[in-house]
Amino acid sequence: MTKPAPGTGSASNKAAAALSIEDRIGLYRTMTLIREFEEQVQRSYLEGLVHGTTHLCNGQEAVCAGVAKALREDDYVSYTYRGHGQCLARGMDLEAAFAELFGRETGVCGGIGGSMHLTDIDLGLIGAFGIVGAGLPVAVGAGLSAQLAGRRQVSVCFFGDGAVNIGAFHEAMNMAQVWKLPVIFVCENNLYGEFSHILHTTPYEDLVIRAAGYSMQSELVDGNDVLAVYDAAAPAVARARDGQGPTFIECKTYRHRGHSRTDPAKYRDSAEVEAWLKLDPISLYRADLRAAGLMSDVGAEDVAAEARSLVKAAADRAAAAPWPSQTQDFMATMFVQ
Amino acid sequence: MDLLVPKLSATMETVKVVRWLKQVGDKVAMGAPLVELETDKATMEVESPAEGTLEAVLGAEGEELSVGALLARLRIAGESVTPSEMKSTATSVAVAPAHGADPVAAASRSPTGAPGSRILASPFAKRLAKMNGTDLGRLAAASPLTRIRGRDVIAALQTRDAKVKLTPSASGDFEPFSPARRQIAESVALSRRTIPSFVIDRWVETTAIDRARLTLGREIERAIGIKPTLTDFLFQALAESFARHPRILDRRHEQNGHAVRMRVSNIDVGLVVALADGVMIPVLRNLADKSIREIAQARRDAIHRARSGRLLQADLTPISFSVSNLGRSGADRFEAIIYPGQSGILAVGRQHERVIARAGGVAVATGVNLTLSFDHRLIDGLQGAQFIDTLAERIERAVWPTS
Amino acid sequence: MRTNEKIISAGVEPIERVTQEITYREAIVAALREEMRRDPKTLIMGEDVGESGGPFKTCHGLYEEFGAERVRDTPIAETGFVGAALGLALTGYRPIVEIMFADFLGVCFDQIANSIAKHRFMSGGRVKTPIVIRALGGAGLRFGAQHSQTAESWLLSVPGIKIICPSDPEQAYLMLKAAIRDDNPVLVLEHKALLSMKGPAPIGIDDVTMPSGPRVLRPGRHATIVASLAMVRKALAAAESLNAEGIEAEVIDIQVLRPLNVAPISDSVRRTNILVTVEEQAPTGGWSSDVVADVVSQAFDYLDAPPARITLPDHPLPYSPHLEDALIPSPERIAATVKSLL
Q: Is residue C78 annotated as a catalytic residue, yes or no?
C-alpha cells in the first residue's frame, strides 16, 4: 500500500476541523447506510432479486461520503457502474434504488436502467456511466454548463484507477484545465482495474502524477479516511466555485469485494486483502469518533441497526413492487415525443 | 392513371373490397362508381376520377387492402403512353386473347403451365393475373425465358375483347347478400364469438321525463323545430351516469398482441339507426356538456347522416357505448349485441304503463325496460348493477329545467 | 431569384418571408444564426468553429455575433467535446457540435452510441438530451479514403439518435432548424460536395418541423428512385434524361435515415412497380438494404423487377480524380439501371 502523501495542491486547510458534531456523526451514518445497502444488494442478488451483474463499493464508502459532504444541492455528480454509494450519499430514495436494481416499475429509472445506471437528475445525479471513462467528458460538459450559468455550481466526476488509461480521461482533463472549468475529478484508486493490478496496466501507482501533465491542481489522500477526503474535497470545491478551475483528487482505497458479482477476486494476495480490511473506513472512523468521545460503540451499533432496518424495509417494499409494463410506450422513453 | 385506396377515416388502415361495379375493359365516365369499399363501419363507393377505360383491378372481392395501395389502373381517354406501350416487347403483343377460356378457373389454377416448369413472372404480374383472371401460362408460352411483367398482363387484358363478369349474377330463388348485410353478419358473428357479454335490466319509471317533455320539450320544439324524444333524455341521463362511473367507458385495445384497458374521457355515444337493409351507428359527441336542446339537434343530425349514407369521419372513429331504441317498434324489452370494439350497449324498450307498488299501495306508472349488455372482460356485474342504478335514479328522480 | 411573400395571420403584424437563392453553406449558417438568436441556451462547439468560422465556413460570422462562449473552439478531441455536449444538455443547454469530417464520428462513436443515444432511455425517460451533432461527409473532393465517407450507416443500427441528411439548401436550412429545436439527439449529416450548391430557401421562416420521412422531389409513374445527399441531384439528373425517352421516374429523397420510414417509398413502388436506390456508401449494411427489405415486405405483390441498389464498391475510395469519379454513382449509371429493369 502506498502511503498517503500530499499532492501538488495547497496543503490541507483542515476544513474538517470546522465540521459540527452532527456533521461528523452524519458522515458515519452515510457510510454505514452505503455499507448496509451494499450488503443487502449482495443478499438480494443471492435471492435472485438483483439480475445480471452488480458492482459493489464496500470499502470505498469514505470517498462517496467525504466528497458529498463538500457539495451543494445544485451541484452535478457523475459516476460509474460502481455508483450506488455516490447516489445514496446524495440522498437517493432507498426504495427507488432497490426497485431499480430489482428491475421494478417503481425503480428510480422505471427498471430500465438497472444497477449500472442509477440516475436522478433532481438530485444532481446526472448519470452513471457503464463504459470506463465515458462519464468524464460529460462531467466536463456539466462543468461548462455551470461556468456559463454563473451560479457557482461545481461538477464532480467519480471514476476508478482503470479510467486514467482511456482517451476520454485525457480529453476531459485537458478541456477542463484549458477552460478553467469547475470540475472535481475524483479518482477512486482501488488498485485494480477489473481483474488487473494497477502496476500491470499503468507505469506507476500514484495517479496524481497524471494531473501534472495538465498543470492541474491535485491532491493525494487516504481514501479510507473520510475526514481526509473531506479535507481535500472542500477546498477543491471552494476553488472551483471561485473560478479557479478544476482539481484532481486521488483517493487511495480498496474494493472489499471483487469487480462484480461474478468475480471472487482470487487474483488478490490474501495478505493484501487482510491488510486493507484492517483499514476499513467505517471501523477506522468509528474508532476516531469513539476516541473523540462523540460516539460510543453502542451508539455506533444503533446507527448500524437503524440503517439495516431502513435498508431491509426498503428492499422488502421494492421486492413487492410490480414489474414494469411490457406494453409501455418505449418510444416515448427513448425520445421526447 | 393509378387509383389508390383512399383514406376514409383518421384511424382506418385497411378497407375491404366489397364489389367491383365495373369490369376490366369497361369504359367509365368521370364520376362513375367503380368499386364498393367497406371500412369497419361504412360502405362507400369510389368514383372514377376521370373518363377512361378500366385497365386492371388489383383487389379481389372480399380482399383487405391497405390505405395507399394500388386499387385499379385507369387508362384516361386520349392517354396513350403506358409502360406497356412505351416499351412493348414481343411477349405482350404475341399473346393470344383468352377466348372461350373460363378466366376465373384459369386464375384459380396453379400459375405454372406445364408440370415441372415454373412460370417466370413478377409478383406484380402474378397479382394482376390473379385479380383479373389472366392465364399466365398462355403469356409464358410466348416467351418462356422472359419474366412476365405487370405491363404484359395489362397488355393482354387490353386485347381481350370480351368483357368478363367475375361475379355470377343472382338467379332463381337465391339472392346474394347485400354488402351491408354481409358486414352486419360479420360484425354480429365477431361480437358473439369474441365478446363474453352479460345482461342487466331494470324497469324505470319515466314520469319525470314525460313531464319535462311537456314543458321543456315544447319550448325546444318552438325554438328549433325539433321535438325532444325519450331517447334524448336518456342520452343526457346516460352522460351524467358515465360521469359518475367513468370506467364503464373503458375500451379494450389491442396493442402489439396484448390487450390493454384504454381509458376514455370523452362521453361519445353511438345511436343505432335502422335503415332499409341494415343499421348504422352514427356518433353523438361530447355529451357531457350538452343540453337537451343540443342533444335533440345532435340526434336528429346523426339520424339524418345515417339515413342519407353520409357518415362523417368522426362517425367512424372508435367509441365505447351505443344506444338502441326499439320502443316505438313495439318491443317490450330486448337485448342488443355489443358492436365489436365497444364495451356496452343500452337497449330501450316500449314505453308502457305498469301496475307498481308505491308507498304501501298500488299505483299505475309509465316506464320502459332498460337492458344493458356489457363486455365482462372490462366490466363486472357489480359495476354494471351500480351503473344501472345510477341511471335509473337519474331518470326517475331528475328534475329537468323548464328552459 | 428573390421573391417576397406576405404572410398575414389574424391580428398579427404581417411577417415578411423571403425566399432567397442561397448556397447550402449559407443555409447552414442562416439556420445556426437564427436558432442561436432564438434560444440563448444554444451554443456551438467544434474544431476551429470560432474566429475562423469553421474549416468549411459553416459557422461564418457566428463568433462575431455570439462571442467565444457560445461559439467555442475545442481541442482536437471529439470524444471530449461530444461527451461535453451530453453534460451541457443534461444541465439545461442545447449544444450543437460540429464534426469537421464525418469520418471523425469514429473517434467519438462511444459517446454517441453508448452515452448520447441511451442516456434518456436508461433514465426511464426522466432526462432530456437535446443535442445536435453536425458532421460534414461525402466524396468528390479528392480527400482520399479517410476524409470522404458519408457515414450514413455508421449509426443506423443504434436506436436513440435521429439521423437526417439534407440534400439541398432548403432542407439544410429547415431540417437543421428543426434539429436544433428537437429535444432529442439529432445527427445531421451534411455533404461537402453540396456546400456551394445554390437553391431557394425560405429564410426567416419560424414554423419548422422535423420531417417524418422521405419527400417526393419529382413524381413519375414508371420507376421509383430513392437517393440521399449528393446522390439526390444525380437521381434528378437521371430522371431528366429518362424523361427524354418517355420514361417517368419518381425521385424520392430519403432525407430521414432514423427513424426510417419506408411506407411512402412502398406507396410509390405500388404505383411504379420498380425500385432503384442510390447511396454514396459501400453496399454492405447501407440504408438501402433496409429500404429494399421493407419494400419487399410491404409491397411484394407490386414489384415488377428485383429492386436494384446502386452504391460505391465494397472497398475504400481512392484519391485520384480519375478513379474517384469513376466510382461515384453517376446519372448515366442510374438511368441505365432504371432502363434495365423496365
A: yes
